[in-house]
Amino acid sequence: MKQLLLALIGTLILTLSACTSKEGKLKKQAEEIGKAKFMEVLKKEADDGLGQSDWLRQAYVEYVGNRSEVEAENVNFQGETAATATLVVKTYSPKMRQTLIAIAAKVDPDKARRFNFGEALVLIRRQTGQNTETDYQPLTVLKFTKSGEKWVADNP
Questions:
Q1: CA atoms of 87 and 137, how far apart (whole Å)
Q2: Which residue, 78, 98, 101, 128, could crosslink 49 as a Cys pair with Cβ 3.0–4.6 Å?
Q3: What is the pLDDT of residue 3?
Q4: How far apart are CA 53 and CA 130, in angstroms?
Q5: What is the mean pLDDT of the chain?
Q6: Contacts by 26-32 with C-beta closer than 8 Å and gap 24+?
Q7: Buried b (16+ CB within 10 A) or exposed e, 80-99
């Protein structure tokens, strides 16, 4: 009886660790896809609002991207071959990002390399009282299907 109980506990522990490992791998994969998606969003924002300077567009994407963090908030498995991952991003609000772009867009192209997004945030906070801290916002829900031993995103 004691051996049966120990065997059941061992099986349960192995099952739980396998699920955790599977979930961890899928979570990491989803976060990598989410980071790429978010960087695309930032690039589009920069392209649409900062036409005067390639350097300023790149600096915006790098500044906001480096201060943002994508997290897989929830991973759900539907059987053995399907899963979803809900992604959130901790970043500046869309309104704050648009304010940063609006300010940077007014910079003369000859002076673009001296523009500092961090200083701009400090000035925005000082002059408007707006919250310039990052917070969590929904990003996307990814659907995965299992192909062989790998999980493949259906909607990257």
A1: 9
A2: 101
A3: 57
A4: 27
A5: 86
A6: 26/72, 26/75, 26/83, 26/85, 26/144, 26/151, 27/72, 27/75, 27/85, 28/72, 29/144, 29/151, 29/153, 30/72, 30/75, 30/85, 30/87, 30/142, 30/144, 30/153, 31/70, 31/71, 31/72, 31/87
A7: eeebbbbbbbebbeeebbeb
Q: CA-CA distance, 152 to 81, in Å (whole number)?
A: 10
* Distance between CA atoms of residues 94 and 92, nearest Å: 6
For the chain, how are helix, strand and coil distributed in percent, rounded to 5? Answer: 60, 25, 20
Quickly list DSSP for 27-42.
HHHHHHHHHHHHHHHH
State what percent of residues in the chain have pLDDT above 70: 87
Q: For residues 88 and 138, give the distance between their C-alpha atoms in angstroms, rounded to a whole number.
A: 4
The end-to-end CA distance of the chain, in Å, is: 50
Burial (Cβ within 10 Å: 0-12, 13-18, ≥19) of residue 107:
middle
CA angle 78, 79, 80 (to 5 degrees): 120
